[in-house]
Amino acid sequence: VAADRYGRKWPFVVNNILFIVLELGTGFCQTYNQFLACRALFGIAMGGLYGNVAATALEDCPEAARGIVSGMLQQGYAFGYLLATVFARALVDTTKHGWRPLFWFGACPPILLIAFRLCLPETQSFIERQR
């Protein structure tokens, strides 16, 4: 709803800031209940982000390619799991903080995504709909 009202850019940025806060917060959790609460909120934020990203990616995409492009978006989860495994092997057993640096490090990619998205204009479909 926010992306339809205010554009795709700013809800994406706000949601990624929420991602960063929750990802960093996960690394500072002291109990299992705190960890579960933080990750549950992270999952809600991920759901909010996915719709925005899918709309941004598919709006200006040719109709014939939308199925393939949406499939590529879904593969992002599998690729993310592979990256998480690589970074877990590199960070978890090599630092005194254990599993926590994995989440602290995970807060970095959204910063890059925010910077990249701020440089891009709104989609043509959204601009036309606003008119």
UniProtKB/TrEMBL annotation:
<feature type="domain" description="Major facilitator superfamily (MFS) profile">
    <location>
        <begin position="1"/>
        <end position="131"/>
    </location>
</feature>
<dbReference type="InterPro" id="IPR020846">
    <property type="entry name" value="MFS_dom"/>
</dbReference>
<keyword id="KW-0472">Membrane</keyword>
<keyword id="KW-1133">Transmembrane helix</keyword>
<dbReference type="Pfam" id="PF00083">
    <property type="entry name" value="Sugar_tr"/>
</dbReference>
<dbReference type="InterPro" id="IPR036259">
    <property type="entry name" value="MFS_trans_sf"/>
</dbReference>
<dbReference type="InterPro" id="IPR005828">
    <property type="entry name" value="MFS_sugar_transport-like"/>
</dbReference>
<protein>
    <submittedName>
        <fullName>Carboxylic acid transporter</fullName>
    </submittedName>
</protein>
<feature type="transmembrane region" description="Helical">
    <location>
        <begin position="76"/>
        <end position="92"/>
    </location>
</feature>
<keyword id="KW-0812">Transmembrane</keyword>
